[in-house]
Write a structure and sequence with these properties.
363 residues; alpha/beta; UDP-N-acetylmuramoyl-L-alanine:D-glutamate ligase; 10 helices
């Protein structure tokens, strides 16, 4: 969890200093009335906590046998975005996707129910695997809470055959039915294998067509490998995703990132939030691009899950009426909180956001 003793400061002149605590509070107070749909690839994050002092050597192979002393299971990918929305206080978060009819699917559904997600549009699909990130890690068993010392090799379970047409039909029908009930929609395209996840070419195009009748709906898309194919949505690529979407030419410099953000925004006719890791976020709206710096943190930090936090925060605050740079500043605040949660994907609560803003304005 967040260590309040760690010093934080703004990395540069920052719009966060123009964000009044009363404004942040007003936006946060609007969250409970929001209903947001999260459509995409829901993974099970399965953390297996291993004690390095108990390692054994296999008599058969000579390889290390890691000794599991505990585990944590929580929703990952689109599930982590949904978890962040719930921790922010969003009133209703609808999960739209699927899992397999297997043990991992049971654990994923149980974890999602514990978050209070609406699972009406979350389908169980016999014959499909539940996407899973199996994350063994060394922990310090002598400490309360067993803090993570080191993450070990991850095991990934994904579907590598195309999503059945009947399942795509169910997903499209549910989204069409619910669009006019949502204040925000988040599209999370995690599976790199083409047409093997939720947001297949057909599903993506059907959603884009349906959005034509919902011009005021806040729609944000986040995709690891296909961000340039999303239309009628605010895009949230990181620097490398934007670079790859536009041909992978040139350097990964801030100047190039500014150009990429501008090109993507002009192409979609929607704003773009291009994340820069510890350098913050570029906000593009047509040809205008503004840089919102990150919060500077002292080590240790763990960036895993900060992109999910940004996606959730941007969606919630924009649906609540935030301006673009306000949204980016609050997303940077939230990312600075989750980055200090080691060995987990992390979340940021309204109380933590308020406290972090106070720290920055005081520094």
């Amino acid at each position: 969890m967040l260590n309040q003793a760690r010093p934080v400061r703004s990395c540069a002149a920052n719009p966060m200093f123009d964000l009044a605590p009363t404004r942040l509070r007003a936006l946060v107070e609007a969250f409970p009335a929001l209903r947001i749909g999260v459509v995409g690839d829901f993974f099970l994050d399965s953390y297996r906590e291993c004690d390095p002092a108990l390692d054994e050597k296999s008599l058969e192979t000579g390889k290390t046998c890691y000794q599991v002393i505990g585990y944590r299971r929580q929703p990952g990918a689109a599930g982590n975005v949904a978890a962040n929305l719930r921790v922010l206080g969003v009133g209703v978060v609808e999960a739209v996707g699927y899992c397999g009819d297997d043990g991992e699917g049971y654990e994923l559904r149980r974890a999602m129910r514990q978050l209070g997600l609406d699972l009406t549009g979350f389908f169980t699909a016999p014959g499909r695997l539940t996407p899973t990130y199996d994350k063994p890690c060394y922990v310090d068993s002598s400490q309360r809470g067993r803090s993570v010392i080191e993450e070990l090799e991850r095991l990934d379970t994904k579907n590598r055959r195309p999503t059945p047409a009947s399942l795509q039909n169910d997903l499209i029908a549910y989204v069409r039915q619910r669009l006019n009930q949502w204040d925000g929609l988040v599209l999370i395209d995690q599976v790199a294998e083409a047409n093997c996840g939720v947001l297949t070419t057909r599903v993506r195009r059907a959603i884009a067509a349906a959005l034509g009748s919902q011009p005021k709906l806040v729609v944000l898309a986040d995709s690891r490998t296909r961000i340039g194919l999303f239309t009628r949505a605010i895009l949230k690529p990181n620097q490398r995703e934007a670079w790859a979407a536009l041909g992978g030419q040139g350097s990964l410099s801030l100047k190039t990132a500014r150009h990429h953000a501008r090109v993507l925004s002009n192409h979609t006719g929607r704003p773009v939030f291009l994340t820069l890791g510890n350098r913050g976020i570029l906000v593009a709206n047509g040809s205008a691009v503004e840089h919102v710096p990150a919060v500077c943190l002292t080590a240790p930090v763990d960036p895993v899950g900060t992109g999910d936090t940004c996606a959730a925060v941007l969606s919630a605050v924009l649906a609540a009426g935030a301006e673009l740079t306000e949204a980016a500043a609050i997303a940077c605040l939230a990312a600075s909180i989750t980055a200090q949660q080691i060995g987990t994907t992390g979340t940021a609560s309204p109380t933590e956001l308020s406290r972090r803003l106070h720290q920055l304005r005081r520094s």
